[in-house]
Amino acid sequence: MIEFKDIERYYDAGAVKSYVLRYASARIGEGEFVSIMGPSGAGKSTLLHILGMLDEPTAGEYWFLGEPVHKFNERRRTELYQQYIGFVFQAYHLIDDLTVYENLETPLLYKKVPSAERKSRIADLLDRFNMVAKKDLFPSQLSGGQQQLVGVARALIGRPKLILADEPTGNLQSPQAREIMDIFRQLNRDEGVTIIQVTHSDTNARYGSRILHLLDGKVERDEKI
Predict the structure, then answer these.
(1) Domains of the chain
(2) C-alpha distances in angstroms, 14 versus 7, 11, 17, 19, 66?
(3) Which pTM was predicted?
(4) How far, in Å, CA of 34 to CA of 111, rounded?
(5) β-pairing, 218-224 with 85-88?
(6) Predicted pLDDT of residue 16
């Protein structure tokens, strides 16, 4: 499903290039559940954003479903993202002036999902996450944990082939964190959704079957669990 080869991401700092990723390479098959781990500054979130087509590599190749993403313009990358990918952001990225219901509906509007189906999908996820009573609230009226739950629900609502999650349980209490990870595992095992998460949690990493260990912008070790 995914192959990235010799991916580099650097920023010009005067006469010096500041590398975040350097020669990062790996393959991830459809239906895998992979965790990306490593110390702060190793390039984990940058790599995840490149895989999610929200950032571009400075150099290297990225293939997604056999297509050369590194050759695509921003419009084509956006189309692929909207069609296939759900992203769970560490900082929520909810739209402040939209209600919970409207935040969940927005990705479906982009995909031109019919009204009746939109209502059905939203109702299912609100029930699944025990958020029915909060559907008319705005993000500022929710706790951090509740905002993250909405962020996860929004990533799932488009029924993506690939879920990318950046520290998906970092702001959740333990019971909520287990709930989210159990949902990810169910989606992976029962529905074949490919999941790639960045995490510092050994417990969360063990929900998958493989860990990519990053160090200094490279995939230092590829561990099967």
Answers:
(1) 2-224 (3.40.50.300)
(2) 22, 9, 8, 13, 37
(3) 0.92
(4) 27
(5) unpaired
(6) 87
